Amino acid sequence: MAEAKICGITDAPALQAALDHGAAMLGFVFFPRSPRNLDFAAARALAERVPPGRARRVALVVDAEDGLLDRLLAEVPIDLIQLHGGESPARCAAIRARTGKPVMKAIAIAEEADFAPVKQYEQVCDRLLFDAKPKPGEGKGLPGGNAVAFDWMLLKGRGFSLPWMLAGGLTPDNVATAIRLTGAPAVDTSSGVEDAPGRKSPEKIRRFLEAVRS
């Protein structure tokens, strides 16, 4: 059965819904331009509500400098760092070494050529996440959480040496199809379980996680 990550959690009801219905990962966003951005105090309050071993707490950052990462990890209990910007393989390796935390690199996909860097990232990361690459004019300057999907058939027949996750436009209504078509061992949603940008719906979270299990 595929694992699921609920990303961009900003309040306790969303967190509790994700826990109650079996999310394997909970994502907290640290990117000021995102409507899901959290300050460290708010993120810590949420992260500390997660029972030990229940779900992995993921910090999503975008081209973060060392100082930000140091402060983040000093103040918020985090299990995994998601790099969702233009981080190079060398930068991923440096962050992994500096923080001592496993790293998941998001790779934006629109066409087959976008898989070219994967082998380099496989050598220095712990996980991969394939998200939709926004087209010009899409995304409001955000690297993810844009309710945009890419052609899932681009993943057909591909194998990777690391655990990987599918993201981009996944909703309670399409996630089961996405898993079936791609064989994704894990899926990630953010805007697909929201009533408005940054406001998660506990009911949509429940439906999404039940669809993943189905």
Describe what this molecule looks like in 3D.
The chain has 214 residues and is an alpha/beta fold. The protein has a single domain, classed as Aldolase class I (TIM Barrel, Alpha-Beta Barrel), CATH 3.20.20.70. Helix content is 29%, strand content 21%. It contains seven helices and ten strands. It has helices at residues 12-20, 40-47, 66-75, 89-99, 118-122, 175-182, 202-213; strands at 3-6, 25-30, 56-61, 80-83, 103-109, 127-132, 164-166, 186-189, 194-196, 199-200. An eight-stranded parallel sheet has the order 7-6-5-4-3-2-1-8. It has a two-stranded antiparallel sheet with strand order 9-10. α1 (12-20) runs parallel beside α7. The protein starts with a strand and ends with a helix. The mean pLDDT is 94.
- As a percent range, the share of strand residues is 15-25%
Count the DSSP helices: 7
The first-to-last residue Cα distance is 8 Å
CATH superfamily: Aldolase class I
CATH classification, class level: Alpha Beta
Which descriptor suits the 3D outline?
A: globular
* CATH arch. level architecture: Alpha-Beta Barrel
SS content category: alpha/beta
Helix content: 25-40%
**Rg, please?**
16 Å
Q: Which strands sit side by side, in order, in the main sheet?
A: 7-6-5-4-3-2-1-8
**Total domain modules:** 1
Question: At the third CATH level, what is the topology name?
Answer: TIM Barrel
The low-confidence runs, each spanning 5 or more residues with pLDDT under 50, are: none
Mean residue pLDDT: 94
Number of strands: 10
Mind summarizing the main beta sheet? 8 strands, parallel
